[in-house]
Specification:
Blueprint (H helix, E strand, L loop, with lengths): L1 H8 L3 H5 L3 H20 L11
Length: 51
Amino acid sequence: MMYYYWSRKGVRPSVFYNMSHGEKIVVRAFYEYEIKERSKRKSYCPLLGEE
């Protein structure tokens, strides 16, 4: 998950490290939701992680 946010969104690992436990839970929920929504698209390729 941390790599995803760094490579796709530009969020540095140090930002994750400094987040509170509650923030990490919310970010994880957003990540899982986005992955779920992407997988619903017909042109989604899980190996490439993009459309």
